[in-house]
Design a protein that fits this description.
The complex is a heterodimer. By secondary structure, chain A is α/β, with parallel strands linked by helices. Chain A has 24 helices and 10 strands. Chain A has 3 domains: 194 residues, no CATH class; 263 residues, no CATH class; 169 residues, no CATH class. In chain A, strands 1, 2, 3, 4, 5, 6, 7, 8, 9 and 10 form a 10-stranded mixed sheet that branches. By secondary structure, chain B is of the alpha/beta class. The chains are: A alpha/beta, B alpha/beta. The structure holds adenosine-5'-diphosphate and magnesium ion. Adenosine-5'-diphosphate binds next to strand 1, strand 2 and helix 1 of chain B.
Amino acid sequence: MLFKLSLKNIRKSFKDYAIYFFTLILGVAIFYVFNAIESQTVLLNVTATTRDIITLMTNMLSGVSVFVSLILGFLIIYASRFLIKRRNKEFGIYLTLGMSKRKISTILFIETLFIGIISLFVGIFIGAILSQVMSLLVANMFEADMTKFTFIFSKSACIKTLLYFSIMYLIVMIFNVINISRCKLIDLINHSKKTEKVKLKNPILCIIIFIIAIIMLVYAYYKVTIDVESLSTPDKIFIPIILGCISTFLIFWSLSGLILKIVKSIKGLYYRGLNSFILKQISSKINTTVVSMTIICLMLFVTICVLSSSLSIKNSMSANLEELAPVDIALTKTRNITAEKAQEYGYNTAYIEDSFLPITDSLSKLDFDVSKYLKDMVTVHYYVDEALTVEKTLGSYYEETKKTLPFLTYNMPEEIVTVSEYNEVAKLYGNETFTLDEDEYIIIADYDSMIEVRNEALKRNTPITLLGKTYYPKYSECQNGFIAISSNHINAGIIIVPDSAVDDSLLERESLIANYKASDDTGRKNIEEVIINLANHPYISSTNLEASTKLSIYESSVGLGAMVTFIGLYLGIIFLISSAAILALKELSESTDNIDRYKMLRKLGVEERMLNKALFMQIFIFFIFPLILAIIHSIFGIEFCKFILETFGDKEMTKSITMTAIFLVVIYGGYFLITYYSSKNIIRNR
Amino acid sequence: MYMNILKIDKIEKYYGNKSSLTKAIDNISFSVDKGEFVAIMGASGSGKTTLLNSISTIDKVTSGHIYVEGEDITKLKGNELNAFRRDKLGFIFQDFNLLDTLTAYENIALSLSIKNVNYKEIDERIKKVAEELSIKHVLKKYPYQMSGGERQRVAAARAIITNPSIILADEPTGALDSKSSKMLLEKFNYLNQELDATILMVTHDAFTASYASRVIFIKDGKIFNEIIRGNDTRKAFFDKIIDVVTLLGGDLNDAL
Ligand SMILES: Nc1ncnc2c1ncn2[C@@H]1O[C@H](COP(=O)(O)OP(=O)(O)O)[C@@H](O)[C@H]1O
Ligand SMILES: [Mg+2]
């Protein structure tokens, strides 16, 4: 009997609770897809570096999955609570008929079980299909070629999904039982008769609160954009975040009162068509749902920021690399290790001896044929004077900087390069070259925050002393450039001096910059293999030679970018689903109360078209309100993200914002439409 | 001038399928003239609501025709039905009369605003009708803040403000105490006599029916009897009604 009743209820639910099923299935599918990435990528043809990063990524994704399952768990409990509320009357009838609470719990238990099984089954099925698309995306992200397409089903992801969701459903069942056992018959029956009071707020108070909220918000916006430099320590960022949250709440609170008041005062508008009805529908709800509106708005905001910045990281990283790693390889070694240093670090003699050799000599000891593999070679020597530290180059500006930027290392010696050697590098990289007079120096840098500090010192014409001779800045600003290849703008400053300014006594490091002698990718990959294999040469322990290659930089940064993108995508989509689902459920549960209202309107002779328009407007406004505020928040939030991501260079986010918009429209819009059509369905049946 | 505002012509309404058929209305015909106040009486389940729903186009008849001001409304479809209800009918029901989210004023205004009447006229007409039905003091209140009688009078105001051809009332006093019932019915009389409104009211209560100018009795979906008040006092008419009710088989109140 109970079994039959449950089945009947579920069949009914399929139509009524489309949103619930949709969310569960989507949740299961997404969960499966992101946990199946590892299995999906097993067959990908990638290098060892990339493989490592993929492993790291899947580990992180599975950590994030725990968090995601928490969110989904909350969502499911929330949803099922709504559904139970909707059915209070039904349960009330069961109870008056003499059915025990235990039996009702059993009905709910069976229902949850069924819903769980169906959603898991369908969700994993859809997830399995989606994860094939995911394979393509992963391959694209890691720039691996898909040698052949094979349909992969991840058993481990499937088991994991089953396990996690079973736990979630179990918790839901427990919650339901507690809920039922606590409720009283009288509440269940009276539930539908309760009419909510439309409380009118004091308009003057609303205006005051609204203005306060706007001021708070503007201040928070100002803090994270124009005044962003002042957020030097991580804890300071909490102030604008908290202000933003509070003001969001206050805006919804005050607007709900104000809008009604304003429209009501425009009588011609208020008493036109169903406007008065629509407005009351919305405002009566906004009154009671300010908190959830706030949460939804903030979640949407986080979603938009996470999605658009994570999607842009990979792009910006790739774009950066073209500029920042213009050559195939840079070999570096520390030169002329002194006896004291050797003792301090416990270097052996072979090691010290090697440090007195130029890079090319070390390479031939490693049996590496320079002329066979390398071309466009440029050698750069870095000189260091222990006395010439950052503190010295900042000169009189040092005292001020120390106060504002206490975390900078000021006692580090500056790196010095001669102008002729720098020009060689610059020529190879396609950067600007310079000429210097006998008493001039230049600072080359591309790390924005450091440039700002150094510029001030240069403006003050701060002199530096090298080997007893004094030099003055040629320019009042740092010049753009770098020597070491990398994935980011990280050159905090290299001092360029005339060739005569330094001698071998100051020599610290040597760098050999070159391209591979190869005409195509395969050739370059082969030489890269040779370089990697040098690690197995017996002489390698006697030298401190280090290589950084364009390919390895590329792979690790592309991998890092992809990793961030995937985690961002995962969290972003889950957040989006959660907020849209909460809204949709809320709206649907209201629709039940609305059946009678719409029925009455129909009796009054309101045309179907007008009714649908009213329903549409009511749901649309409810969905668009948090979205609008979230988008406004995001404009500033994304600015802030750009600031954080500055080291990754490229600030162009149009593409990723477009992608985010597509996600928003598809998922959020999808939920909106389902809500609208389900509500229409609910108010249609009599 | 004589004019049939409502003409019901041999209507039938069946519910159910071949195996279990309910004849809710079984060949009913009658007409209502302009300015008449007609009560329809019958026991619970006799088909009163079905009859009213057929006239109001909420339900479709199985066969027969219903003419309102000469137009056959059984032929209407889709939005024509809505437009017909909006323009020709006024409704008063036992409960669920008013939208709980709107004030009395807004509830009344709604039936005009959906006809695109401008605000100035809406306001004037509401003031007038509120005066007539003595509901001026509740205009700013929400339904839950009003008494049952006030709610029904607001519903009546909403029903007549559009100047409908017919006002349909289904058990309008069903949820009211006798004092409120009396007050509402007196207002009905006022609407009928002073404003020349045509009212068709369904009831199972003899007292309520005694306010009408004509009472039609139905039993098992058929017209059983019909009496006209003529120049009788309300009391005398009430006694006549009771006679028919006894003939019909006992107190209708108990039958409910
Ligand atoms: N939707 C329906 N489906 C089937 N039978 C119905 C339906 N509505 C009413 N009936 C039947 O039609 C008859 C008349 O009902 P109704 O018009 O509601 O009576 P009254 O309003 O006089 O109490 C009753 O026997 C009732 O059971
Ligand atoms: Mg009835």
